[in-house]
């Protein structure tokens, strides 16, 4: 059953909005961003299983296929952070694709420590796939023609949350840092109100046309248009 709605936001940036009932995240695919036989980047693979028999990863694979993309052609999986609703399916994606895995260094340290306890609460096992790339602040080396992306370390929801910013298309992949009209929770283990405020302040200074967040909200699935992005940051600053 297809439980994702898809939209190509700009050329090569595919946004997969989760519309199922179980806990899972939105995903983003950067098509043909890598050189080589497996050219796609998958940001936040989500979960393999969910409530009421839902299979989020299979739904994502089907939604990608409808867009002419194959999950098996993913060469890199990036986790914006390690919470299970964003990252639990990484082992299955690696099994099916042989893809490399990337997390930020502070997020990987968090996953190996107290952050791993989230998987028990979800009734699932800690992923065994180790990141081959530990993301650092700055330019993300992709290798595909015309692709530029920057890694921003943006703690607050978790200690090593990252956002991906594509300056050419002015797209921000925000994970669980900023949503349409809202922000990620800060009361989980590893969360920080102070760090979240600093991350929001920093992101608000970027030239952004589209915010692709890890979850939708009552305000909608995404934020698009410069004026709407500015208003969204003005709104979410009211949380502090």
List keywords for this structure.
seven-stranded mixed beta sheet; 15 strands; single chain; alpha/beta; six-stranded mixed beta sheet
Describe this entry's structure for a reader.
- The chain has 240 residues and is of the alpha/beta class.
- It has one domain: Ribonuclease Z/Hydroxyacylglutathione hydrolase-like (Metallo-beta-lactamase, Chain A, 4-Layer Sandwich).
- The protein is built from seven helices and 15 strands.
- The strands form three sheets. It has a seven-stranded mixed β-sheet. A six-stranded mixed β-sheet has the order 8-9-10-11-14-15, with helices on one face. It has a two-stranded antiparallel ribbon with strand order 12-13.
- The model has no long low-confidence stretch (mean pLDDT 96).
* Total strands: 15
CATH architecture: 4-Layer Sandwich
Structural class computed from helices and strand pairing:
alpha/beta
CATH homologous superfamily descriptor:
Ribonuclease Z/Hydroxyacylglutathione hydrolase-like
Helices, strands, pairings?
Blueprint lengths: L3 E7 L2 E6 L8 E4 L9 E4 L12 H11 L7 E5 L5 H4 L2 H8 L2 E5 H8 L4 H5 L11 E3 L2 E3 L8 E5 L8 E5 L4 E5 L2 E2 L2 E2 L9 H12 L5 E4 L9 E2 L1 H11 L4
Parallel strand pairs: 4-5, 5-6, 6-7, 11-14
Antiparallel strand pairs: 1-2, 2-3, 3-4, 8-9, 9-10, 10-11, 12-13, 14-15
Short description:
With 240 residues, this protein is an alpha/beta fold. 25% of the residues lie in helices and 26% in strands.
